[in-house]
Amino acid sequence: MYGKAGSIEDAKKIFYRLVKKDVVSWNSMLTAYAQHGLGQEAVDLFEEMRGVGFQPNEITFLCVLNACSHAGLLDKGLYYFELMRKYKLEPDITHHVTIVDLLGRAGQLDRAERFIREMTIQPTAAVWKALLGACRMHKNMELGAYAAERVFELDPHDSGPHMLLSNIYASAGRLSDAARVRRMMNESGVKKEPACSWVEIENAVHMFVANDDTHPQREEIRNMWEKLRNEIKKIGYVPDTGHVLWFLDQQEREERLQYHSEKLALAFALLNTPPGTPITIKKNIRVCGDCHTAFKFVSKLVDREIILRDTNRFHHFRYGSCSCRDYW
């Protein structure tokens, strides 16, 4: 519970106070480490679990593989994947997805594609989405387009892969192809999930959507963000407008970025929490590249830890960097 809420230290305290641990408690702690990008801690815990005689199950291996993937521990992850068979456990599709993600994070895209082709079970949309996400990060447009086509065949109504492919094209300057993917979404009736972010302060949850003007503190929130934006520009922040509608001019594209839901939630939290205290924000979809960059600069500017939980993981922003090492 504490791991999911963002408090890894509280999760550790509870875990190590347990007099009698079972495989579920070990797996829960491994999951918390994985979600927070603490790969080496997860590996150490897994080895501790084995050392005291606990038998890992399929979920245990999935947890430690995810941790290795999020932390970029390529060799360890591949070793544990092979170790499953030593415990007479057969990897299922979720373990294969994690290995594709692991290889993709390491930039070994060709090896990831070969791994998919050599799988003894049929690849699912999730497998190809893992490869597509890696192609976005490493800007491999050709392989990304191929992976996206496989996803469209298997799960045509998922908006995420459409947006990823559109962003890959936009980043490469192929704006007409990016627009074509957006048109294809509209023609197929694929709807992008509306983004929202929320933050809990004094036992009250405050929710925001992009360009939100409904909050009682809306003027203060917008003024705070505009002040932050101007300050972080002075220390190196450059708005990432590559994924904004290509037919807008540069100023309009920057404005489209400025009031994303997580930025409004962050400005609100800074207005309503004591200096120096950590801030935790949650979002219902993956954080965009520009917001991720902006959060890094804000964490440096205000000298506070900012924790952002999106659909993929926890991002811990400290001193101008993120725990995900810019791969999410």
TrEMBL record:
SUPFAM superfamilies: TPR-like (SSF48452)
Keyword entries, A-Z: Repeat
Domain of life: Eukaryota
Per-repeat ranges for PPR: 22-56, 57-91
InterPro entries: DYW_dom, E_motif, PPR_At4g14850-like_plant, PPR_rpt, TPR-like_helical_dom_sf
GO biological process: RNA modification
Name assigned to this protein: Pentatricopeptide repeat-containing protein, mitochondrial
Native organism: Sesamum latifolium
Lineage: Eukaryota, Viridiplantae, Streptophyta, Embryophyta, Tracheophyta
